[in-house]
Design goal:
The protein has 8 helices and 10 strands. The protein is α+β, with helices and mostly antiparallel strands. The strands form 3 sheets. A 5-stranded antiparallel sheet has the order 1-2-3-5-4, with helices on one face. α4 runs antiparallel to α8 and α5 (179-195) packs antiparallel against α7 (227-237). It comes from Lepraria finkii.
C-alpha cells in the first residue's frame, strides 16, 4: 500500500516532500511550518470544491489555539499549519503519555469542538486521526469537511465527511449530523485517548458493524479506567450533552492540564 502511495504521489509547485494523505487529498511539506493539502488527482474538481469549503469553514471559525492554522488558498489546494508531532493516533503508537497529558488532550479536543460549533460548523468526523499535535503537544483539530450551517441551523454546504462506525451515533438518517453527533464522536475520541485504543477493539468495523451499532443503541458502553472520564464519555455516547461547553464543565478546571510532558 505504501508503495502505491509513493508511486502516485506528485508534487505541486513549492511542495518538498510527501507528508500524509486523506480520503481525496495528499499532504505535502512546503516548509518547516507549512503544508499544502491538495487533490490526489491533479485538477480534481470535486476534491477542489471540498477544499474550498474547508477554507471557508476555517475562515469562519477564525484563528484558535486548538484549531489547525489556515494560511491561505491556492488554485491547487490549501496552505495549512504544519503540526510536526503528527496525530494523537500516531503518537500513541510510539509513546505512553501520562494520565494528565491524556486528560489535557481530551479537554483541548473538547474546546476545539466547542469553538467549531459556535462558528456554525459541524465537524462530522471528530477522531484521534484528526487531532494533530504541535511541538508542545498541543491539540490542533483538522480536516474540516463537514457541515457549514446557515443562521437558522439548516445545512448550507456539506463536505460529505462522516464518522467511522465506532464514532457514529445511531440515528435513522446516517447523513444527519448535529452537535450531539459530534459530541458522540468526541466520546469515542476520549475513549481512544485515555485507553490507547478504539472502543470494542475485538470487533471489526466492517464485519461487526450492526453489532457495534446495537451496542451503542442499547447503551452497552465499554468501561474506562478513569472514573471521571468514564462518566463523561458515557454521557457523550448517551446523548446527554446539548453542547460541548457542557462537556467542558464536567471535565472541570484546565489547571491540571499540562502540555508537552513528553
Amino acid at each position: 500500500m505504501a508503495t502505491e502511495v509513493y508511486r502516485t504521489f506528485y508534487k505541486p509547485e513549492g511542495v518538498i516532500e510527501f507528508l500524509g494523505l486523506g480520503t481525496d487529498s495528499f499532504i505535502g511539506t512546503v516548509d518547516e511550518t507549512t503544508i499544502l493539502k491538495y487533490p490526489k488527482t491533479p485538477g480534481d474538481e470535486i476534491a477542489l470544491t471540498v477544499l474550498a469549503l474547508e477554507a471557508q469553514i476555517l475562515t469562519k471559525i477564525g484563528p484558535h489555539k486548538h484549531i489547525i492554522g489556515y494560511k491561505g488558498q491556492r488554485e491547487d489546494g490549501l496552505l495549512l499549519e504544519r503540526a510536526r508531532r503528527g496525530s494523537i493516533a500516531q503518537f500513541l503508537k510510539n509513546y505512553t503519555p501520562t494520565w494528565q497529558q491524556r486528560f489535557a488532550w481530551a479537554r483541548q479536543a473538547t474546546e476545539a469542538v466547542a469553538v467549531t460549533h459556535r462558528a456554525g460548523v459541524i465537524h462530522c468526523d471528530v477522531n484521534v486521526n484528526n487531532l494533530l499535535l504541535d511541538d508542545n503537544l498541543t491539540v490542533k483539530l483538522c480536516d474540516f469537511q463537514g457541515h457549514l450551517l446557515r443562521a437558522d441551523g439548516s445545512v448550507d454546504k456539506d463536505g460529505l465527511a462522516r464518522e467511522n462506525i465506532k464514532s457514529f451515533m445511531p440515528r435513522a438518517d446516517p447523513n444527519y449530523s448535529d452537535q450531539k453527533t459530534d459530541i458522540f464522536a468526541l466520546g469515542s475520541t476520549f475513549y481512544y485517548i485515555m485507553q490507547g485504543h478504539e472502543p470494542f477493539p475485538d470487533m471489526d468495523p466492517i464485519n461487526d458493524e450492526e453489532q457495534i451499532k446495537g451496542r451503542f443503541a442499547s447503551r452497552q458502553f465499554p468501561e474506562m479506567d478513569s472514573l471521571l472520564m468514564n462518566g463523561v464519555t458515557h454521557k457523550c455516547w448517551a446523548g446527554e450533552y446539548n453542547s460541548a461547553e457542557a462537556v467542558l464543565q464536567d471535565l472541570g478546571s484546565d489547571d491540571i492540564c499540562p502540555v508537552g510532558m513528553l
